[in-house]
Amino acid sequence: MPEYKAPIRDIKFVMQELLNCDNHYQKLGYEDASLDMVDAIISEAAKFAEQVVAPINQIGDEQGCTWTDGEVTTPDGFKDAYQQYVAGGWPTLAQSVEFGGQGLPHSLNTAITEIFSSANHSFAMYPGLSHGALATIEAHGSEQLKNQFIPKLVAGTWTGTMCLTESHCGTDLGMLRTKAELNDDGSYSLTGSKIFISAGEHDLSDNIVHIVIARIPGSPAGSKGISLFIVPKFNVTDDGDISERNAVSCGSIEHKMGINANATCVINFDGAKGYLIGEINRGLNCMFTFMNVARLGVATEGVAAAEASFQGALAYAKDRLQMRSLSGVKNPNGPADAIIVHPDVRRMLLTQKSIAEGGRALIAYLAQLVDIGHVSTCEEEKAAAETKLALLTPIAKAFLTELGLECTGHGVQVFGGHGFIKEWGMEQLMRDTKISCLYEGTTGIQALDLLARKILGSKGKILKAFASEVTIFCLENADDDAMQEFIQPIKSFGGDWQKMTEKVGARAIKNPDEIGAASVDYLMYSGYLTLAYFWAKMAKVAQDKLAEGCEDEAFYQAKIKTARFYFQRILPRAKGHAACVENGAQSMMALDADDFSF
Fold first, then answer.
1. 478-513: per-residue pLDDT in tens?
2. Most buried pick, 102, 260, 358, 594, via CB within 10 A?
3. CB 559 within 8 A of CB 428
4. Where are the alpha helices (DSSP H) in 325-454?
5. Interval 395-421: pLDDT, tens
6. Is 497 helix (H, G, I), strand (E, B) or coil?
7. DSSP letter string over 42-88?
8. Helix, strand, coil % (nearest 5) of the chain?
């Protein structure tokens, strides 16, 4: 199993040097988030991840969760690790002081989330889902509901879930059958079954708070008639204490491809007591609070997977001796050279490195936008941040998870046949990561959200804020000769992005299938270009540091060389996606459904 080490140096580079988190935090009033405090928290998170969370990753995969008569037991070590996680105050980090949190920035918590996810994807999911439940209740719940549920969720003694899909409806939530009937006391009685509920039942916390969508009798059909409810595993008194068991049960757990140590549950509601969140028939609107938080969390999983796989592959490539270098012997005292000398191995390692580090920069940037949305007092600044988040969240979620999965494949490939063997741990990373491309909206759903709802729905206006930021960066560096290898491609690909958008929009007027046919390629093109922007920014910081005569010269040189690899070997992939968009929907839709046969 690869030994995980948190990439502290690169996390600090992104937060402090690229995004100037110190100025960002002070401007927003996060007075406790000094550089010393940030450094200390990241270091402690790294220690906890490396010493407590990572060591139970492989045993969690091997044992999985067990289901007996509706009760779920997590693998050996998970309960103890979670108790240490709670005792260390990690769930409270970025939560409201009003409810017992530390009130630190979301962006700092995001850096910690990446570390825990790299160390152990399954473990990180248990507390991760609580963040979305908290955000939803805090944004849309009544004061009574906030006081009843938030303090224990903040503390981590209770955990949360999101209960959306059902066996027959998948992504089409308007088809749901779970119903909610009004009780005399103003609560609701929920009846129905939900599937694929991550962390829906387990033995880590005292209570599990389900955020559930259901339909109140008489509500409109489809998505317009969906309402949102809090349904706890154990009922809760007005004072926020646990009461009797609610009519909520785990019918089974799924036997899965990966994340075996996280229970994926069928949850049955048999007249369970629940509480309405927000307005009747406005459940999906409220649920987007949870879903947007979750989508950024899943995007972070893609980065975490790329990092973990890179670390494992890099260590192996430096140690494994196979063949001689084509350019001459590099290890004259050994029977062969380390495989890291071979160009194809370098290709895979640099792909992993460029995706992990570029993705980390994008996620940190988005997390700072979330900070602004949470606490900024400037409405114009908040609106700009929310617009950029609306554009970039589906890109980050889909693009970074698809590339994260690719990176885990490279990790297996670097190991060769050993990568296919369980004991090395690389195939587990690949199995665990595939889910990130699926839950919280598949790649195809994210692509439709981006192109249909966001881009074409706004007639391209949503692109302006981020495109303007990229344009300003290019103008600021127009006279910097050392930056032209990065600036010129961004300008060229950016211009084609705009033309592509206009062309798809024009075609869609005549044939709506053009949107669906173009959407995934459009999103991937957008992702490659977006990451190019962040790699250009990192190259600029590195060049400036080298010009100042910094001590850590090797680190900054590596940044520039990796940026160059990204622009020369990864960014050109976008041209293939552009060609697919250009070729339109005709060939994709030419076969009738009955013509598909085998």
1. 999 999 999 999 999 999 999 999 999 999 999 999
2. 358
3. no
4. 343-375, 379-415, 426-434, 443-448
5. 999 999 999 999 999 999 999 999 999
6. helix
7. HHHHHHHIIIIIGGGHHHHHHH--EEETTEEEPPTTHHHHHHHHHHT
8. 65, 10, 25
Please list the active-site residues.
440
Mapped to the 3 state alphabet, what secondary structure does 175-191 carry? HCCCEEEECCCCCEEEE
* The two three-digit tokens of residue 107, written as one number: 């962006």
Tokens of 512: 């709506």
| Digit-coded pLDDT (tens) for 161-197 | 999 999 988 778 888 999 999 999 999 999 999 999 9
DSSP state of 436: G
CB atoms inside a 10 Å sphere around CB 509: 9
Distance CA 462, CA 472 (A): 17
Helix (H, G, I), strand (E, B) or coil at 594: helix
Strands 207-214 and 158-163: parallel
CB 268 within 8 A of CB 248: yes
Comparing CA positions, the residue from 421, 410, 268, 442 lying closest to residue 339 is: 410
553 HSE (CA, 13 A, CB side)? 5
Q: Is 418 exposed, middle or buried (0-12, 13-18, 19+ CB in 10 A)?
A: middle
Strands 71-73 and 158-163: unpaired
Tokens, residue 33: 């988030």
CB of 208 closer than 8 Å to CB of 158: yes
- Under 8 Å between Cβ of 65 and 73: yes
d(CA 36, CA 16): 11
